[in-house]
Amino acid sequence: MQDPFATRDPMIAPSILSADFSKLKAEIDDVLQHDADFLHLDVMDGHFVPNISFGPAIIAGARRSADCYLDAHLMISEPLRYAPAIVKAGANSITFHVEAVDDPVAVAREIRKLGCHVGITLRPATPVEAIVPALDEVDLVLIMSVVPGFSGQKFMPEVLPKAREVKTRLRADQRLEIDGGINADTIVAARDAGVDWFVVASAVFDKPDRAAAIAELRSKL
Ligand code: DX5
Ligand code: ZN
Known about the structure:
By secondary structure, the chain is α/β, with parallel strands linked by helices. 32% of the residues lie in helices and 19% in strands. Strands 1-8-7-6-5-4-3-2 form an eight-stranded parallel sheet. α2 links the parallel β2 (39-44) and β3 (70-75). The protein starts with 10 loop residues before the first strand and ends with a helix.
């Protein structure tokens, strides 16, 4: 398995939220065979966000389908309650929302005890200051560039100053990830803001030719 922390290379991470779940393994194979770096898994509870996606059972299915790094993004109100099952199912990283917890430092430390990488993320409206106290405790920061809940939304360029600000505060071993509305146009501004990892759902899975879609994204990096 390729560890995305092992290099400084930019990474393209398709989110299976926009995949066809009637043939999930074929969808996963299609993107991984066509140059995707790893998979992004959007867990939603219908409470923290107004949508329900999937949980540990589907993540375990993704694990059995693919020998790649699995990056779990928990859009849920109780990340610590479900993180152990999600790691057990095969996730390699757990990213939690700062808005969902009272003590992000403690939550990051608890997640790290599970033996996975730890990420923190914030909604577009949440200021960077909310995550600053926890930055030393995490491996990655995920900048949300749409209001979390659904794929296929429009990129919010107003989050780019937050990406730039976070990047200046990260150590060389930490990574900056962006999620929401990334396509062959918007990825350029995200790259210029210092983003390392790019989550893409609809701009890959809604295209019939995933090889061409990923190649076009990569050509911009
Ligand atoms: C949004 C999710 C994203 C989403 C991205 O709530 O966290 O990962 O699937 O979808 P696109 O790339 O279509 O904006
Ligand atoms: Zn996501």
